[in-house]
Sequence to fold (283 residues):
Amino acid sequence: MKKQTFENLISLASQESCPCVDVTDGVISAISAVIHRNVKYDRTYTWMGAASAAMAACILIATTFFWQSNTDSVSEIMTYVSWVTQ
Amino acid sequence: MFSLKNQDKKATNVRFSEHHDVQASQSGDAEAFRRLVQRHQQHVSKLMWRFTRDKNSHEELVQESFVEAYLSLHSYKAKAPFEHWLSRIATRVGYRYWKQLKRHPHMSLQDSDWMQIAEKPPASVSPEDAADIVHQCLAELPPRDRLVLTLRFLEQCDVEETARRTGWGQSLVKVQTYRAKQKLKKLLEKTNIEFEI
Fold:
């Protein structure tokens, strides 16, 4: 009996037709899910960013206020000291 | 002459509309990407059929290839045809699938199974049977060897094309092909299939 060769099998296999698929809807819904997830993450990051910015602004205002009040008392002491030394 | 001109015009139109769809998809137009999927799904399907013989896995792989293509669309620079770029992504998806399969316990073919392979006389083997036998034989090899032989012989890619699809250098492709052929030759000694490539 004539032996089967791998080359023959490969050339036969190359002629094979593949099953028909229609993945269009699946791909579009998978992509929409990915986009939706990204939008959700983007929104979360936006909120986190806004909250951090608001917190930073509060801290800045408080620090400025505290610094100014401290600076006033220090300058009062300095005025008093210079007056005493004179 | 006239029909040749018409064909050229048609091809140019297809290229133009494809380029337009790619650009629109890059800007987030899902409808444009839908058109690209419709245009190329048969090509990707044919390629993914080399990676699995299971219809469910096959459909999943085709879908995964397009999703991955969409996510990498920003990296497409239109230097090569879209189909070539897509083939590279699909090859990567298929190769990853094989590597995942290898991580799970794998049922190797027994000696008796080997003897049963290709029992039929050469004339009575259908393309589907031949593809099944080739798939079973190649499945016994490590994913790298399997990939290089699939691309070189089933997909009929030359060394340059194989290197482009795998991302390997051309000399690596040559070495890998040689080694894979040696391993396959050794495997086929157990069967009644002669190794001649």
